[in-house]
Structure formats: structure tokens, C-alpha cells
Amino acid sequence: MSDPFFRGELVTWSQVCRLSRRLAEDIRASGYRPDAVVAIARGGYVPARLLCDALGVYDLQSIRIGHYEGGARKNETARCHSPPPANVRGLKVLLTDDCSDTGDTLRLALEQLRCCGPLDIKIAVLHHKKVSPVVPDYYGRRIVSWRWLIYPWALTEDLSGFIAAMQPRPETLDEAVRQLRIRHGIKPPRSAVAYVLALMKQREAP
């Protein structure tokens, strides 16, 4: 993300749980009964585990696809950083991620999984962005106007990326909070911003 000013949205744990329950209800209503859930690491770990819990699925596997880094920094291409799951042959698979955005991550994950011989693959995400060319089979919420979604499990990582990209770098907590509001339209807890500033200072120490 080259533009230092872009909209963000803080996603809460309660929203994640609510969307996961909605996803599970939609999946059950559709008649799909997955034998295994495959999480796209890292963003899909938590949604995948919640769906396993709600759907009564015990087979949870993962595939690691890298495309974005903290603070909406995008790599040129999506890449697979782990072997695809080896134990999905003949199974009905639910491929799970936090959101659909460019579609590159989902496309690559699908390609890798199809090589493993599953009986069927369906995709579930918490948030489906309208801009994504890949439309998931199930999604908890559709995002019409693009924004960067900041999930609770990536709050420190994203805030660190946002603040690191600020020029000049904010020197105080008040200034960091103000710049996050101006640049990204978000109001994270002051304690979270203070923690990130302290962590960044610690990491940059000689």
C-alpha cells in the first residue's frame, strides 16, 4: 500500500465471533458438511478454529500463503511458503481465511489444494471485499467500500506498520493516536498504541 493515507477499520473479537457463527449457520443451511477445514495462514487460523468448533469438525489443517505484511504492505505476488496439506484426498474441504481482497491468496491456495485430490473445496471468509475477483462460497459480511481490516490478532503488527510508515515518525503517544485517526480513520485503544510505540523503540535499540 503506497498511499500513506487510506481507510482502516478495527475488527473486534465480538464481531469475529458473531461473523463466525453466521458463517457456520450459512454452511449448515447450504447442506455442505466439510470433513476438514484448511486455514490459510496466518489470517485464517482463528476463523478456521472457530468454524471447526461451530461445525463439529476435528480435522484442522493449514497452508501458508504470503501476500501482505503488517500495515497493509503488499508483496508483489502471493507465494506459498509451506507444502499443501497432504491429508485431504477424497475429503470435502472448507478453505478458510479472514478476508478476500485481491483474490491472489485464495487463488493460489485453491491451486495448491486441488493438487492434493480433495473431493470438493468450498471457501469461507469473515469479510468479502467487493473488489475481490474471487467470490467465496460463504462470507460473514460484504465490504463495498475498500478499507484495510485490522483484526484483533494482528493489531500490534498493523499498528506497527502504520506508524513505521509515518513521515515524520510521531514522537509522542498523543501524536501517534492523532495521526492514526487522520491517516486511517481509526481510534485504537491508547494502551495498544503505547504498547506498539514501546515495542518499536525496543526493537530499534542497538
TrEMBL record:
InterPro entries: PRTase-like, PRTase_dom. Keywords: Glycosyltransferase, Transferase. SUPFAM superfamilies: PRTase-like. GO terms for molecular function: glycosyltransferase activity. PANTHER family: HYPOXANTHINE PHOSPHORIBOSYLTRANSFERASE, XANTHINE-GUANINE PHOSPHORIBOSYLTRANSFERASE. Coiled coil: none annotated. This is Phosphoribosyl transferase domain protein.
